[in-house]
Specification:
By secondary structure, the protein is α+β, with helices and mostly antiparallel strands. The chain folds into two domains: 94 residues, Immunoglobulin-like (Sandwich), CATH 2.60.40; 86 residues, no CATH class. It is built from eight helices and ten strands.
Length: 211
C-alpha cells in the first residue's frame, strides 16, 4: 500500500481498498479518474483468467487479473484497447504512450498532430467523461449498464482526429438516444477535448486539481 500513500492520483480520487495479488488473483484499477462500467477480459497464455465489469465488488474502477495477463476493455461491441495487466491502467496505456500532460496542465500548449496515437487518449477521455452518469469526474466516472448496452453493434473509430470525433455521426446518435432515454442526470453533450484532457491530467495526478 506504499504506492497508495505516495501516488497523487490515488490521494485525489480516494485510495482503493487494495492493490494486491492474493492466491494468484490480482486487482487493478482503470483510471481517467476511477472508471466503473467498462467490460474487461484478462487473458494469459492458457486463455481467459478473469472477465467482468470494472467496479466489481462495489470497488470503483476495479478489475481482476493474474500476473502476466493482458487486459482488454470494451463498451458493448466497441473495443477500447488493451494493456499489460497491472495495478493501474489508463487511456495512455491503451494508446501505448507514456503518461504526460501533453499541452500543459491548462492544455494551452501544442498538441501532437492528428496522425499521432495521442488522439486515442483524447477521444477516450472525451468518451468516458461524456458518458459519466453525473458528469462530475472528481468523484469517479460511472457508466451505466444501459449506456454501455447502446454500444452493441458499435464500430466507433477511436483513432480518428479529435475534431472528427466531435462530429462523428455514430457517437452523436448514441448520445441522442441516451438523452432520449434519460440515462444521464441531465441532457448531455460531448465534452470538449481541452476540458477532457484537463480533467484526465488531474484524475491521473499529472496536474493538481484546479491548475
Amino acid at each position: 500500500m506504499l504506492l497508495c500513500a505516495l501516488s497523487p492520483a490515488l490521494m485525489m480520487t480516494g485510495c482503493p481498498d487494495a492493490v494486491y495479488c492474493n492466491n494468484g488473483v490480482c486487482h487493478g484499477y482503470y483510471y481517467d479518474s476511477l472508471v466503473s462500467g467498462l467490460s474487461y477480459e484478462s487473458r494469459g497464455e492458457e486463455g481467459v483468467t478473469h472477465a467482468g465489469v470494472t467496479g466489481e465488488a462495489d470497488d470503483p474502477g476495479r478489475f481482476s487479473y493474474a500476473e502476466g495477463d493482458t487486459v482488454s476493455f470494451s463498451l458493448g461491441d466497441l473495443s477500447l484497447g488493451q494493456s499489460v495487466a497491472k495495478d493501474r491502467v489508463t487511456p495512455f496505456d491503451l494508446a501505448g504512450l507514456e503518461e504526460e500532460a501533453v499541452g500543459g496542465c491548462e492544455v494551452d500548449g501544442a498538441l501532437p498532430d492528428d496522425a499521432d496515437t495521442f488522439r486515442k487518449v483524447v477521444n477516450l477521455a472525451v468518451l468516458f467523461q461524456t458518458l459519466d452518469t453525473n458528469a462530475d469526474h472528481t468523484d469517479g466516472i460511472e457508466i451505466r449498464s444501459e449506456v454501455a448496452a447502446l454500444f452493441e453493434g458499435s464500430y466507433l473509430d477511436l483513432d480518428q482526429s479529435r475534431a472528427d470525433f466531435q462530429e462523428d455521426a455514430e457517437i452523436l446518435a448514441l448520445l441522442e438516444e441516451a438523452n432520449s432515454l434519460d440515462l444521464f442526470s441531465e441532457t448531455r453533450a460531448l465534452v470538449q477535448p481541452g476540458d477532457a484532457l484537463r480533467a484526465l491530467y488531474q484524475g491521473l495526478g499529472l496536474c493538481p486539481s484546479g491548475s
